[in-house]
Design brief:
Blueprint lengths: L1 H8 L16 H15 L7 H17 L11 H5 L21 E5 L5 E4 L2 E4 L8 E6 L3 E6 L2 E7 L20
Antiparallel strand pairs: 1-4, 2-3, 4-5, 5-6
Length: 173
Amino acid sequence: MLFDRICRENGVDHILTQPRSPTTTGKIERFHRTLRVEFNTRQVFHNLKTAQEALNEWVTYYNTQRPHQALGDLTPESRFNATERQPADPRTPRPERNGEQGVCRRVASNGVVSVDYQQVSVGRNYAGGSCDVLVTDGLLQFWVGSELLKTVARTGTGVVRKLHANGTAPRSR
């Protein structure tokens, strides 16, 4: 009852899942598995305060330092605060993305970029921004600023139309 009262006071709807329906709880079940392995839930604490402090420390590590495979080895914090990313090391060489092989595309509201009829998700946190795409015979590389977001195999073989990020063709002079 205390949990439900705290939820209500904070505007949170406590929704229960159907019994024996693991497909609706997959993400939290996976988190619990990670918690059991990495936090070592078998350890014994002297008191509740010590246990809570240790758990808070692990959750902070989990969200701010631990790489997550599903996020391309980024942390949840870095994905959540995408606009606050650290600039890339200027000594890191990066390919030239303008010229004949580069195009610029607007990231759709669902985080998808379209190039040569191929749709690639770069993440909703980039929605509305522009994305440079390096196009080669076999690959598409998606860049925002100096950060390489994704490299995928190119499925098309046609000429990629040079559109501006807003979806219009460049003007002839």
